[in-house]
Design brief:
487 residues; alpha+beta; seven-stranded mixed beta sheet; 22% helix
């Protein structure tokens, strides 16, 4: 029975137009390839086809320094038996290549221990309608894209005389995917994605400091209107100018307040990866085997939610064709679930959570985050900052390093303040937070009522694959954190 919604059928129609019809193949061709892989029994198999058109523009010193345009397309076919995966891919979408790839992966099933046979009836998958199925690159022509970056440059220089250099970039992609699974599921998605970034360098008395701001999501390029552009320009300038007044950061163990929004990247990296199914199935995560246990302070509730409309990390379907979900991972401090793809869910005797993701058709899927965030509490953010006797208020973060399995992290603050007696004293430079993610969760003592998602700039790396993600959190107070400084 066909249960797909009309938007899902429209996405399927677009996927057929780009991924099947130009090459003289159809769904029956894909079914024959899967049947070839299923010469012996398997536990699972799928074919993933993808078409991606991308574009990028960058401006520096008032001039467009680079422009890029690319098209990538291809397919990957995967066969799974037990915990073993055979995978083959090609950028040549054709019946011959599909059958050749199916023959390559078929070897994994020679022992015939799998429990699943190929589904005969084809059924169309549904999924959400979290964003429109359109090409976001077509909303502006080339001259309008260049003019937008030129306006960013002019705005930044007009905002403050200390701005010495401006860098601005605009990027977008139109991504169309088609998934056929061994159980007969056929699902498609059309995924627009755009991003704007503005960075400035301010100079005063021989000192140079930087600031940056940006955002994006699954919408068209014309979403970056004058007000949005001005916000990001002003924010980048504000950060750079503020950093001109910064002093060396104190070091030592102290209480720290994290700002709302993008600082959730610490939550994502130091804790989120440890809640992905593969690490827990293998026992390499600090959270392995701890379902039902208290792993965080009371009041801490962490979710992964791929169903937020228009967000950078959201998907109508994951890369195995499952609709994305709103998965509660930690509820009031208690670990209740992991993020799962189909392979790890089957081996752990749990259900998939719509978290199977891959960088492209040339990569195997694995459990990955979508939009990961902590729910709000009931404290006023100003009250939380005022509670610090002597400590650090980290408003925003730059880069960081994390050991995924242990949760040990080092994060650098791009904007931070030294606080004494509940008052902001002065901005500091060179502050780094050092700790262990699972341990930090237990030290959360105050949770703000201002949960905010990041502006749409996150990219997550895992095992060499990068995918767009979202993060978020309210203002948090964390007691006894090691801060590395330059003072």
């Amino acid at each position: 029975m066909n249960t797909a919604t009309e938007p899902a059928l429209l996405r399927l129609q677009e996927a057929r137009r780009l991924l099947l019809e130009p090459y003289g193949i159809d769904e029956s061709t894909l079914q024959r390839a899967l049947a070839s892989a299923f010469e012996h029994r398997l536990d699972d198999a799928d074919i993933y086809l993808q078409y991606t058109r991308s574009e990028g523009w960058s401006l520096e010193e008032g001039l467009v320094k680079s422009g890029s345009f690319g098209i990538e397309q291809g397919f990957g076919i995967r066969a799974i038996e037990g915990d073993k995966t055979a995978f083959a891919y090609s950028d040549d979408i054709s019946e011959a290549r599909l059958m050749q790839a199916a023959g390559t992966v078929r070897a994994i099933a020679r022992q015939g221990r799998g429990r699943v046979r190929l589904g005969e009836a084809l059924r169309h998958g549904g999924g959400h309608q979290l964003y429109e199925a359109f090409d976001p690159l077509q909303a502006l022509d080339s001259s309008a894209k260049v003019a937008l970056l030129a306006r960013a440059d002019a705005m930044a220089r007009a905002a403050d005389s200390r701005v010495a250099q401006v860098m601005a970039s605009l990027a977008g992609e139109y991504d169309v995917v088609l998934v056929m699974r061994a159980n007969g599921l056929l699902a498609a998605d059309v995924r627009p994605l755009v991003r704007l970034n503005v960075s400035v360098i301010a100079e005063q008395g021989g000192r140079r400091e930087t600031g940056s701001s940006g955002g994006g999501g699954r919408w068209a390029l014309d979403r970056f209107d004058e007000d949005t552009l001005r916000y990001h320009v002003n924010e980048a300038v504000r950060q750079a100018v503020l950093n001109l007044e910064s002093r060396p950061a104190p070091a030592g163990e102290m209480s720290v307040v994290l700002g709302s929004g993008w600082p959730g990247i610490l939550l994502h990296e130091a804790i989120g990866h440890g809640l992905e199914g593969d690490f827990n199935r293998k026992g390499s995560s600090a959270f392995a085997g701890r379902i039902g246990q208290q792993v965080a302070a009371r009041g801490v509730t962490v979710l992964d939610d791929g169903t937020l409309p228009g967000r950078r990390g959201s998907l109508n379907i994951d890369d195995e064709g499952h609709p994305t979900e709103r998965t509660v991972l930690i509820d009031d401090g208690v670990l209740v679930d992991y993020m799962q793809d189909s392979l790890n869910a089957r081996l752990m005797k749990r259900k998939p959570t719509g978290n199977a993701r891959r960088e492209s058709y040339a990569h195997v899927p694995m459990p990955r985050m979508t939009n990961t965030y902590m729910l709000a509490g009931d404290r006023d953010p100003q009250e939380i900052v005022a509670s610090l006797d002597r400590g650090l208020y980290a408003v925003n973060f730059g880069g960081g390093q994390v050991d995924i399995t242990s949760g040990k992290f080092v994060f650098s603050a791009s904007e931070a303040w030294w606080v004494e007696n509940g008052k902001l004293q002065y901005p500091v430079k060179g502050a780094t937070l050092i700790g262990n993610g699972p341990d930090v969760l237990t030290r959360v003592s105050m949770i703000g009522n201002d949960m905010q998602l990041d502006p749409g700039v996150g990219t997550c790396g895992k095992e060499g694959q990068s995918v767009p993600v979202g993060v978020g959190q309210p203002t948090l107070r964390i007691d006894r954190v090691t801060v590395g400084g330059t003072a």
